[in-house]
Write a structure and sequence with these properties.
286 residues; alpha/beta; Rossmann fold; six-stranded parallel β-sheet; two-stranded parallel sheet
């Protein structure tokens, strides 16, 4: 099987390629090799490689950058995704599109959200990810849309690492400085390899939209508290690690998802606490 990955130098893409490069023929294209806003460029690269499956991870995921430059966000996150979908259609390739839990960011009701929940994004990034979903579905039938949670993991040689709950906490502990986390933010946080290892299982399940990643009912503060506890640094809670009551105090931020739809297909994810322990064990930190 031939797999082409857009955003090929990113956090998820580099780990997928490393994990499966001996099992699949993988072409991972970073932004210097594939400009997804250039439809002709996308068409040529896709036609030349002729993949069976495209995993589309390329995006501007920095929500602040999207808010400050909505035109650029639309160009990359929406029009770029349309170009990818059109190229897939022309070569009869199946598509895995990496969307985001942030399509639920403006929902008034509390999570966990199912795929049947009407998403109400209230950020430029969330709105553009939802718009891309709609445009892709209008073009393609053979597409899996994954509404990803926030991914976490550790640095690896020659692989990109994004800002994430686990590595950020470890850096804060090492710095010795005081740090805070909000008690009013609730969301899934998923070990990146829980996603990587499950991607091939997608290829044999029905097409459609899937909430993807770890379920979690802990606040962001309590997730970090669990990391500290597992690392045996309870002492930090006395003087270095504090609760942030100000962020989201007027309306808690709730991005929790249900992945029951995946469970119906036999695909399981660790919950956030389990994923943290798994990651720390795999990096021999506990």
């Amino acid at each position: 099987m031939k797999i082409l990955i857009t955003g090929g130098t990113g956090f998820l893409a580099t780990r997928f390629k490393k994990r499966f490069e001996k099992e699949y023929e993988i072409l991972a294209l970073g932004r210097n090799e594939l400009d997804i806003t250039d439809g002709d460029n996308v068409e040529k690269k896709f036609t030349d490689f002729n993949p069976d499956i495209v995993i589309h991870t390329a995006a501007i995921a920095d929500t602040g950058k999207c808010e400050n430059n909505p035109e650029l966000s639309y160009k990359i996150n929406v029009q770029g995704s349309i170009n990818v979908a059109k190229a897939c259609k022309n070569i009869n390739a199946k598509l895995v599109y990496m969307s985001s839990e942030q399509v639920y960011n403006g929902n008034e009701e509390s999570g966990p959200y199912s795929e049947e929940t009407l998403p109400v994004p209230n950020t430029v990034y969330g709105k553009h990810k939802l718009k891309a979903e709609e445009e892709i579905q209008a073009l393609l039938h053979e597409v899996w849309i994954l509404r990803l949670t926030w991914l976490f993991g550790m640095p690896e040689r020659n692989l990109k690492v994004n800002s994430n709950i686990l590595f950020n906490t470890i850096k804060n502990i090492i710095s010795g400085k005081e740090f805070t986390e909000p008690v009013n933010e609730f969301r899934g946080m998923t070990y990146v390899y829980d996603i990587v290892d499950n991607i091939p299982k997608l290829f044999s399940i029905p097409y459609g939209i899937y909430n993807t990643g770890s379920e979690n009912n802990l606040s962001r503060y309590h997730v970090v508290e669990s990391i500290i506890n597992v690392l045996g640094r309870d002492d930090l809670k006395d003087n270095k690690f504090k609760k942030d009551f100000e962020r989201f105090k007027n309306k808690p931020r709730d991005l929790r998802i249900s992945n029951a739809k995946f469970r119906e297909q036999g695909i399981e994810f660790s919950n956030t606490e389990e994923g943290i322990v798994k990651a720390l064990k795999e990096y021999s930190l506990i």
